[in-house]
């Protein structure tokens, strides 16, 4: 039983959900402990799930024994397993960091009570993300999308200040509109093809006007939630004003959730439309996102806004290769590039936000100009930020580098010189905004500032550093990721 | 002549559009939340019209199940949005997204 993949599928979703409910039953000071136990079980479930996936191939679980088309199926393949592992690793690291963060900054009864909600909300988010990655039903995906948004919005609002509440409200409204667009698309799909299960849709879809309408509605809805340029306006205030552990979760994982659905939808449902202009439109928007987001990041005076605009830019890369996913020769490499990019960006961006949070906590200031000389004071946090920056700017050796290597390879093999040029220019711009932060860190500090500062807790700086090192180590993950993705063969290889 | 089902679908799409317009056009948060609910109702109406299979046949139950689930989600969303809106009103004295500098 333990060695059956399907056995672990529901546990990955239920364990964090039950742990979240338990945090309400146990006394408040026990919340971190209950969370860690729930996180541990989920971690083990994801580990066994992935190991048995590698050994036995893709698996399905029919919830309640109903089975598609009437019931809802959970299924895991290489792509889903990679996303589950990413969420588990980044999520667990962020939880450790949050423990240090709250102990260091959570003074005052009201703040303490507010921060205590972090634990159940984070577990809800984890459960919803796992459900999203494992769902094989387009309507169930709508429900998981909403669950992810609700948890994410509530987490954003934890900071409690008027600015962040407004940002959370804007985030919630955009997110709801995005979900409703998606749901309208689901209605069109069901009206035309009469099924909701992705595997059955895959077999029945044809290029009809209804499919085009569904594709347009669902793509726009998911673009809003993924914050693809020009629908990114809600992201910088929400990600920059949330508390550091939440910013890391939002940028590393939450935007990837809606992108994951978009990726699957195009690969498995909308592929009859691949010859239309739509994939090229996504490429264009991705390119614009990279240039616009990077230029905005370079202009920022606040550190966390700079990192948030960097997310806007980096999301662009996820869309740059959309047309190549439908070209037989380039598809596996393009997909590997995109997935490597998701993993590397999640690690690096979480590390960047976490180290920025540690720095901000000790300096009490979010301006880039106040970072002078922190290398001497907070060496671990600074090294973590630097290592994350290496991956964001895609310098070798890093996960960002290997992802862009795959992308460049696919783009040049297909003769897309413009796409290749954007990838290179985007890397240069990223190097500029990373240097804008790193350069002042190494300057000579003012003595007055030096004496004022205390050291950030080791739990915080070390988890940030750990994630940054992971993002660097991902440079060796290119081939393993490709092999994982071939399990279940998502994409055009799976359709033939 | 337009069939009953198509008429309802079109009405649903119209509601969706009206809701989207109101959501963008009106600054007050309560109006935005109401607009979001109107959009949702539009989607539900489209789903219900899909379920209709002619006067003699039984309606398809699956879209109905989707609508019920959708309503539950919409209620949760409204609750969360209202909580945030009242909190913003309590802290800033105005239930709007724009700050004074922007307005």
Q: Top keywords for this entry?
A:
heterodimer; A: 496 residues; mainly alpha; two-stranded antiparallel ribbon; 75% helix; globular; B: 103 residues; Helix Hairpins
TL;DR of this structure?
Chain A is mostly helical and 496 residues long. Chain A is 75% helix and 2% strand.
Question: Could you describe the 3D structure shown?
Answer:
The complex is a heterodimer of chains A (496) and B (103). Chain A is an all-alpha fold and 496 residues long. Chain A has a domain at 275-496. Chain A has 22 helices and two strands. A two-stranded antiparallel sheet of chain A has the order 1-2. Chain A is globular. With 103 residues, chain B is an all-alpha fold. In chain B, helix 1 runs antiparallel to helix 2. The A-B interface holds A 70, 139, 142-143, 146, 150, 153-154, 157, 162, 165-166, 168-170, 172-173, 176-177, 179-180, 183-184, 186-188, 190-191, 196 and B 16, 20, 23, 29, 32, 36, 39-40, 42-43, 46-47, 50, 62-63, 66, 69-70, 73, 76-77, 80-81, 84-85, 87-88, 91-92, 97, 99.
